[in-house]
Amino acid sequence: MLSAGGGVAVERAVPVSRRATLLSTRLVARDTWWQEFDCPDIAAAALPGQFVMLGVGLDAPGAWLLPRPFSVGWTGPGGEVGILLRAYGEGTRALARLETGQTALLLGPLGRPFDTEGAEVECVAGGVGLAPFIFLAAREAAAGRRVRLIYGERDAGAVFDPTLIARLTDHDPELFTEDGSGGRKGLVTAGLDPASGALLLGCGPTPLLRALEAFAREHGRRLQVSVEEHMGCGIGTCQGCVVRGADGRWVKSCIEGSVFPAEELDWGAI
Amino acid sequence: MFGAEFPSPVLLASGTCGYGQEYADLIPLDEIGGLVTKAVSLEPRPGNPPHRVAETPGGMINAIGLENPGLHGFIAEKLPWLREHLRRAHVFVNVVGHSAEDFAAVVRGLDGEDGFLGYEINVSCPNVKGGTMFGTDERALADLVARLRACTERPLVIKLTPNVPDVGDFARICEEAGADGLSAINTFPGMVVDIGRREPLIGNKSGGVSGPAILPMGVYATWRARQTCGLPIMGIGGIRNADDALQYILAGACLVQIGTASFVDPGAAVDVHEGLSAYLEANGVARLADLVGALRARPGTGPAIPAG
Lengths: 270, 308
Ligand SMILES: Cc1cc2nc3c(=O)[nH]c(=O)nc-3n(C[C@H](O)[C@H](O)[C@H](O)COP(=O)(O)OP(=O)(O)OC[C@H]3O[C@@H](n4cnc5c(N)ncnc54)[C@H](O)[C@@H]3O)c2cc1C
Ligand SMILES: Cc1cc2nc3c(=O)[nH]c(=O)nc-3n(C[C@H](O)[C@H](O)[C@H](O)COP(=O)(O)O)c2cc1C
Ligand code: FES
Prior knowledge:
The complex is a heterodimer of chains A (270) and B (308).
Chain A: E1 16-29, E2 32-38, H1 40-45, E3 51-55, E4 68-71, E5 74-75, E6 80-86, H2 90-96, E7 103-110, E8 121-126, H3 131-142, E9 148-153, H4 162-169, E10 174-177, E11 184-185, E12 199-203, H5 206-219, E13 223-226, E14 242-244, E15 250-252, E16 259-261
Parallel strand pairs in A: 8-9, 8-12, 9-10, 10-11, 12-13
Antiparallel strand pairs in A: 1-2, 1-7, 2-6, 3-4, 3-7, 5-6, 13-16, 14-15
Chain B: E1 10-12, H1 21-24, E2 34-36, E3 53-56, E4 59-62, H2 70-85, E5 90-95, H3 100-111, E6 118-122, H4 133-136, H5 138-149, E7 156-160, H6 167-176, E8 181-184, E9 188-191, E10 193-194, E11 199-200, E12 206-210, H7 215-228, E13 233-236, H8 242-251, E14 255-258, H9 261-264, H10 268-282
Parallel strand pairs in B: 1-2, 1-14, 2-5, 5-6, 6-7, 7-8, 8-13, 13-14
Antiparallel strand pairs in B: 3-4, 4-12, 9-12, 10-11
C-alpha cells in the first residue's frame, strides 16, 4: 500500500497495467465520449478521484501515443471502468477513435483519491471534471448517501447526457451553462451556498479551481481539488507532473495528488 | 560484462524509472538487466517549473531539471531500497555535476556504499545550464573521465550526447581516458511552441527529445562509437521492441536501455527481452554476443559521416 503524501491518508491499492477491451463507446455530448473498458482489477481497486493512464500500447499499428491521464469515471459490477473522454488535442482525439472490441492499455488506479470521511459533500464540476464525481456520487448512492452535484458547461451541446448521469449515479446534477442554453445561466460557482458547511470537492479548469479556492477561503470551507498537469509516467518516477506546493516544494501531482486539500497548494503558482 | 552477469541485456534508462521502487509493483525487476537511476548530484536539486513533459511527434520532450535528493538524500532514502530488493538486476547510478569536482565528489561519496554496480556519468543533459559542456568539449571530457577513473574501480560508463559533430571522436576520448563503457545516447535538445499563448510549452523553454523519433540517431551514434573504440556500449534512444533493440546490437551495443517506451507500456523492457530471446531461437543464434556489432558491410557503402 502506498501512503498519501501530506495530511490525507486513504489506503490505496498498488497500480497494475492491464490490456483491456473497450466494451462500449458512445458520443454523449459534443466531442465527448463515454467509454467502458473491461478491466476488473482496476475496477475493484479504484477510489473516486483516482485516475488511470490510458494509451494504446507500443504495438498499435503506426501509432505512437504517450498515455493520457483520465479520471476513473465509474466502475461497474461486471468489472467495467468508465471513462468520460473529451477530444481536445491529438492524443484525446486518437483515444476517442477507439472502437468497441479494440483494446487499450490501462495503468491504474493512480493517485490520491478524494477523502470524504463520511462528511456532507458538495461536488463542483467544470466540463469533463464531472468524471470523478460520477464515480463518487455512484459510490455514495450505493452506500445510501447523497451528495450535491453542481455541474457546469459552456453550453447545452457540451452537457453529458443527463439521463445517463442519472442512471450511473442515481443523482440529478444541478446544471449551469455559461450561455444559458441548458440548466441555469452562469458559472457553477453561482450554485455555491455560503451558508453550507459541506466539504467542497472541485474538478475542472484552473479558473474554476481558483474561484473555488477563493470561495472556500472566504467562507472557511474545507476544499479538495483535483489538479491537471502534464504527465509522463503517472506512477511517480519521471517527476514530470509537478505543481507548486504551499511549502514551495514541487510536488508530484500523479502521486501526491491529483487530489489535494486546497491548503497544500501554492495558489499563486497554480 | 562490467564484471557482472546480466540476467537480461535490457535495462531501464535513467530518469524514466526513478530509483526502481515504483516499477517493482509492475514488472519483475530481477528479470531485467537492471536500471540506471535518476541523475544524482552533490546537492539536492529542485528541478524546473512545469510543464516539464509533453508528447512530440514520435516521442516526447522533457525538462525535469535533474530534480533529485542529492548525494546524501540518495544514500539515505533511495539506495537502501535498491540494496534490499534487487538480487540479480544491476544498478548504475547516473551522476551529474556542474564541475569536475562535483562529479568526483558524488563518485567518492558513493564508492564505499553497497547496492549498485557502477556509474553512468551524465555529461550530456541538455536541461540544465552547462549540462552538456563536458559532453561537447573534448579536453573537458578527457580530464573529467581521467579524474573519475582515479576515484573508483567500479565500472565507469560515460553517457554520450549526440550533439557533437562525430560521436566517434568522443567515444575514443572516453576509452583513452580510462572509461569502462559508453551509453549512447541521451536526448536531443528541442522546443515546442504553444501557439495559443505564443510561449514555449515547456517551463524551461527547451528540453530533451526522446522516443522513437531519435531511434536512427541513436543507432548511428552507437555505430560510430563502435568504429572508433572497443568499449562495451549500452544503446539507448527510441527502443520500443526487440527489432529496435536489434538495430542497436547489430550496430555495436551489447546492452540496451529502455526509456520513454516504459511510459507507454511499463512492461516494455520485459517484452524486449522476450523478443530478443525469440529472435535468437528463431535464427539459430547461440548467444546475443554473436550479434554485437555484426553489421555486414555492404559493398560500395558511402563514407562514415553522411555527406548530406
Ligand atoms: C488527473 C487527471 C485526470 C483527467 N481526467 C480527465 C477526464 O476524466 N476526461 C477528460 O476528457 N480529460 C481528463 N484529463 C485531461 C486529459 O488528460 C487531457 O485532455 C489530455 O492529456 C490532452 O491530451 P491531448 O493530446 O488531447 O492534448 P494536447 O494539448 O495535444 O496534448 C499535448 C500534451 O499536453 C498534455 N496535456 C494537455 N492538456 C492536458 C491536461 N488538461 N491534463 C494533462 N495533460 C495535458 C498531453 O498529455 C500531451 O502530452 C485529466 C487530466 C489529469 C491530469
Ligand atoms: C523524463 C526523462 C528524464 C530523463 N532524465 C535523465 C537523467 O536524469 N539522466 C540521464 O542521463 N538521462 C535522462 N534521460 C534520458 C534517457 O535516459 C534516455 O537517454 C533518452 O530518453 C533516450 O531514450 P528513450 O528514447 O528510450 O527514452 C531522461 C529521459 C526522460 C524522458
Ligand atoms: S507523471 Fe511521472 S512523476 Fe508524475
